[in-house]
Amino acid sequence: MKPRVLIVDDEPEVLDLVDFKLSGHGFEVVRAANGIEALRKARCESPDVIVLDLMLPDLDGLSVYEILRTQPSTRDVPVVIFSALDRPVNRSPGYKINVSRWLKKGSDFEALSDSVRAAVEQHVESVRLRVDPEQQNAPA
Question: In this structure, are residues 50 and 42 in contact, taking their beta carbons and an 8 Å threshold?
Fold first, then answer.
């Protein structure tokens, strides 16, 4: 079964390119073009990881991230930020975001693929340990 990745970006060209690259690396890709659609698809499609742009037309990516973290069905799904921004905007200086990786658009797509793969492995391992806590000390 292929790991499922939700890509969230409002630029169709970016969606096409990231979809093409990740599909070619063995991922099943689900796409969302805005924040509201991303929240709906995150709940319905059960992605293993979310690749999230921050500058979205309806709801900014950090707001999407914050909502995902409050929902039981999505709170543990790893998020990889893939944005033109280097850091969160319009947030207080002490604001912290706990994402798997923060990549600037224009990064090597191998880095994106590697980050997604690592986030999927992290997610699968955390689910495995949640289901069977006795496996915590057992070899993988």
Answer: yes
Residues in the chain: 140
DSSP secondary structure letters along 21-55: HHHHTT-EEEEESSHHHHHHHHHHH--SEEEE-S-
Check residue 92 and give its pLDDT. Answer: 47
- Over its C-alpha atoms, the chain yields an Rg (Å, rounded) of 15
Which residue has tokens 């939700």?
6
18 vs 10: CA distance, rounded Å: 12
Which class is 4-137 in CATH?
alpha beta
Domain positions in the chain: 4-137
pLDDT tens digits, 71-88: 999 999 999 999 887 665
pLDDT computed for residue 106 by the predictor: 78
Residue 19 has which token pair?
Answer: 């979809």
pTM of the model: 0.85
H-run or E-run covering 7: strand 4-8
Return the bridge partners of 32, or none.
Answer: 8
